[in-house]
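Sharing a chain and its predicted structure for anyone who wants a worked example. Both blocks are below, sequence first, C-alpha cells second.
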Amino acid sequence: MTEVSKGDWKKFREIVPEWQERYMAKLNKEYIKILSQDKNASDNFWQLSDRIKKDQKSPGVIIEYHKQDVFFDVIRFFKDGVITDEDLADFSDDFRNTIKELKKRFI
C-alpha cells in the first residue's frame, strides 16, 4: 500500500477535528430524537446509553493518530458516514486514488 505523504498526513490531522465536530453535531440531533420519543424515560435513557457506547467507537468521535493507519481510518470515516468523497478534495491524487481502491474492497 502507498505510504501517506507528509502533506496528506498534515492535512488529515488538521481536518479530522472539523469532521468530528460535524459528525457529533449530527449525533446530537439523533440523540435528541431518542430522548424525545414517546416512551418511558428509562427506555429512552437506556437506548441512548447503548447508542453512545456504540458511537464512541467511531473515529468520528475519537481517534488516535497513527500515520500508518490513515488510509484505514479514512475508510472507517466513510463506513460510519462521517465523510463523503467531497471531503477529500484537498488531498493529493495519490491519496484519493488509494482511498478509492480501498473503498472498492472494504465498503
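Comments welcome. The mean pLDDT is 96.
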